[in-house]
Amino acid sequence: MSMPPSALHRLEVELGPRRYPIHIGPGLLGDQALLAAQAPGRHVLIVSDANVAPHYLARVEAAFAGAGKQVASVVLPPGEQEKTLARFGELLSALARLGASRDACLVALGGGVVGDLAGFAAACWMRGVRFVQLPTTLLAMVDSSVGGKTAVDLPEGKNLVGAFHQPSAVIADTDTLATLPERELCAGLAEVLKYGALGDAAFFAWVEAKAAALRAREPTALAEAIARSCAHKAAIVARDETETGERMLLNLGHTFGHAIEAEQGFGGLVHGEAVAVGMVLAARLSARRGHAPDADAERLAAALQALGLPTALPPGLAPEALLARMRLDKKNLSGRLRLILWRGIGQAFVAEDVEEAAVLRVLSGQGPLAGA
Ligand code: ADP
Ligand code: ZN
Questions:
Q1: Predicted pLDDT at 243
Q2: Mutation test of ligand 1: which of 184, 258, 269, 270 has the most ligand atoms closer than 8 Å to its C-beta?
Q3: What is the DSSP letter of 91?
Q4: Ligand nearest the Cα atom of residue 57
Q5: CATH class as words, domain 5-179
Q6: Residue 112 · residue 143 · CB < 8 Å
Q7: For residues 116 and 122, what is the distance between their CA atoms, to the nearest angstrom?
Q8: 3-state secondary structure of 258
Q9: Which of 138, 301, 356, 370 has the maximum number of C-beta atoms within 10 A of its C-beta?
Q10: Distance between Cα 193 and ligand 2 center (Å)
Q11: Beta strand 348-351 with 339-342: parallel, antiparallel or unpaired?
Q12: Helix, strand or coil for residue 295?
């Protein structure tokens, strides 16, 4: 292989009695033995989408078929609007047509949408079968591949129906990131920086230093960023599986970010971009409330800009409307705003009962020191 061994990483996720490996590195989809070993049974259903399948599906099919498996594939149209009960039903029908038994294996080849759908089908087919993730977006590699959340959307809201179902393995081939649209790559980098911002100042500094290499998709840098991000998420999730304490910190920037996503609708910022803006707002609010130095908020904004991400609210979003969305956040307790703020880079914490006036000022674009 032409790749240096330093681009290869393997880590174990441990969740209670469950344990699964994450393999990270270039060329992994070409490792037929590694792929085939994931499906001990006869039947394999591969789920992908129309952007990903033309590049990578044939070699994944070949790996399983070459090992004598009975393989079927479902290629969905791309996009979050496909994460429906109807598509979920199509996957179950495909499993039925395949004659899939309890030892079947579902394989998700794609981003978070494909992973959520295939994972939910795996959780439900015969009350749960094996599930292997082959994430092809940076976001899916660093976020959705750890934690075991699967779901579909309803017209009434996102992720309303789902299950916890841990994969039996995650195989992240960093070569697949070569075809990922620039914007999706940068969106994933927002979540990478988040791990540093919330709990690891040294990792934050590493991402800052590697910003150009990461954007240039330098394989060694990407593999290390993914491995360190997964290790952070795995450690946090393992310590707090039920999301009562520390795991909430993973939502840094997300209460603001979800409000932005919900308020602007289709064609606006993608998730990682909204989270980037949300993290800056959380940092500004932290400074305004006296928790953290203003300089840390500015350093965060500069780092995000270097990663190709927005740091200011898109025009046309009313602060009152955003605040109204934030009031609906699941983390809130009895009508009080609960937000993830920080004491500076690497030191996020859960802030209870945050006063709405301060949030509104930050949403109105007033700097942390304005009026202080
Ligand atoms: P997420 O960002 O949650 O992982 P998606 O599954 O929606 O989300 O993927 C984002 C977009 O990128 C989709 O349009 C998908 O088809 C496309 N995509 C995913 N992986 C790749 C890839 N490796 N190359 C090209 N396009 C990809
Ligand atoms: Zn996120």
A1: 66
A2: 184
A3: H
A4: 1
A5: alpha beta
A6: yes
A7: 10
A8: helix
A9: 138
A10: 11
A11: antiparallel
A12: helix
Question: Is 233 annotated in the active site?
Answer: yes
Number of H helices, E strands in the chain: 14, 11
For residue 191, report the distance from its CA to the centre of ligand 2, in Å. 6
State residue 371's pLDDT score. Answer: 36
Sign of the torsion angle spanned by Cα atoms 94, 71, 170, 38: positive
Considering only CA atoms, give the Rg of the chain: 21
């998730």: which residue's tokens? 271
Domain boundaries along the sequence of the chain: 5-179, 198-363
Per-10-residue mean pLDDT, the chain, length 372: 59 87 95 96 98 98 97 97 97 98 97 98 98 98 92 91 95 97 98 98 98 96 97 90 81 96 87 98 97 98 98 95 90 83 97 94 72 35
Beta bridge partners of 350: 340
CA-based angle 353:357:358, to the nearest 5?
Answer: 75
Alpha helices, DSSP H, located in 265-339:
271-288, 294-306, 319-327
Q: Dig out the tokens for 297 from the structure.
A: 């908020």
The encoded tokens of residue 309 equal: 């991400």
- Counting Cα atoms < 13 Å in the Cβ hemisphere of 128 gives 9
Q: Indicate whether residue 174 lines ligand 1 (CB < 6 A).
A: no
Distance CA 215, CA 187 (A): 11
Which CATH architecture describes the domain 198-363? Up-down Bundle (1.20)
- Residue found by looking up tokens 């590493």 in the block: 206
179 close to ligand 1 (CB < 6 Angstrom)? yes
DSSP state of 3: S
> Residue 273: CB within 6 Å of ligand 1?
no
Active-site annotation holder among 69, 87, 251, 361: 251
